[in-house]
Design brief:
5-stranded parallel beta sheet
């Protein structure tokens, strides 16, 4: 029996968590794709999108919450990395990140880009 190759997908987010819907839509896509067990997902947050992984987000009832959306991706086996330089520029530390997200680097993004079959940028 041959081993089934998983599709390796990298989604890169750039926009802030609220105010535009680009990061929201990127995480929606990540959550939808990772439902398929044949997909291996990595999400990289850079620029203002690192705030998507800020722990303890309080949003009004009925409004999307990007911290919860990141947890959906990580609970389904996806990896979420946040640019360390971008975190530093916004005064955030790894301890400020939601469960499942972690500090990353541009070098790791380069490695993930080489790893991926598909790269999607929001």
């Amino acid at each position: 029996m041959t081993k089934v190759e998983r599709q390796k997908t990298l989604i890169i987010l750039n926009d802030p968590p609220y105010g535009t819907e680009r990061s929201y839509n990127g995480l929606r896509l990540a959550g939808a794709l990772i439902k398929d067990e044949s997909v291996e997902m990595r999400v990289f947050l850079m620029g203002d999108s690192v705030l998507c992984a800020n722990a303890g987000q309080q949003t009004p009832n009925g409004y999307y919450n990007l911290e919860r959306m990141i947890k959906v991706v990580t609970h389904r086996g996806g990896t979420v990395g946040a640019c360390g330089t971008c975190l530093d520029a916004r005064g955030l530390q790894e301890r400020d990140l939601s469960q499942g997200a972690r500090r990353s680097s541009l070098d790791e993004l380069a490695s993930w880009t080489r790893w991926a079959d598909k790269v999607i940028v929001f």
